Amino acid sequence: MIGCRQWQPTNHILYHLANGMLCLGLLVPDYNYGALLLHGLMFLGFLLMSIWSWVILCAPDFFSWNFAFLILNGVQTFSLMYSIRPVKFCAELEEVYVSLFLPFRVSRHLYKRLVCPEFCTLMTLHEGEAYATQSVTRTDKLGLLISGVMHAYSNRSLLHTITEKQFIDSPEFESTSTGEEKFQVSIVAAGLCRYIFWPRQSVEYLLIKEPYLACIMKTLIGRDITNKLYALNEKVVRKGRWLTKQEIWVNSMRN
């Protein structure tokens, strides 16, 4: 075995800085932004190595390998930066997210899938315009009132009021499966209303692919139906009697 008879002088400072960056990258702990920091430091390290091998060492083979690693880590870094970029929504959808989905710790990326144009539509109703007409409109959608007030009528008799951040037609959506049934109530805007709705087939397809979101939506819809039944029961109590279990079931199908 032949040892080193003569040591070369210390390399340029760029070489040591580059290796320092690579060392720091390997020491990054495993946490949310760990992969981004790892590839970011690797990118800086191989950038310095490329400069050192091209300008100081003047070795094309060294430069080629370091530059290749520079490109690979650069692609990884920018890909990770793009994937963790903050997700922003318009003011209306932001209010819905904060009020309904943030308390359940639904991520912004998952919520973005729910409210993307592929699955839902934002609409406006003016005073007197109908969201649904009794015995005419099919129950093939799920609506959520973002702002404004709507009234639900059965044979011109006011059943209940729908306020902002409430589902418009949760009982119909939950009690029917095909979407071919007709509304048993009319739902009319009491003023300027903004709402979002999901076609039944679209939202059911999404919820099959996203089981956690399906669980959250089922919880929100169930809570909304319960609140509607309590409001209806309180209305009847003020008239002097309680709803029976049968009446509660019938009304849950109607309103």
Automatic annotation (TrEMBL):
It holds the Pfam family POPDC1-3. It is a multi-pass membrane protein. The keyword Transmembrane helix applies. This is POPDC1-3 domain-containing protein. The chain crosses the membrane at residues 12-29, 36-57, 63-84. Its main location: membrane. Residues 11-235 form the POPDC1-3 domain.
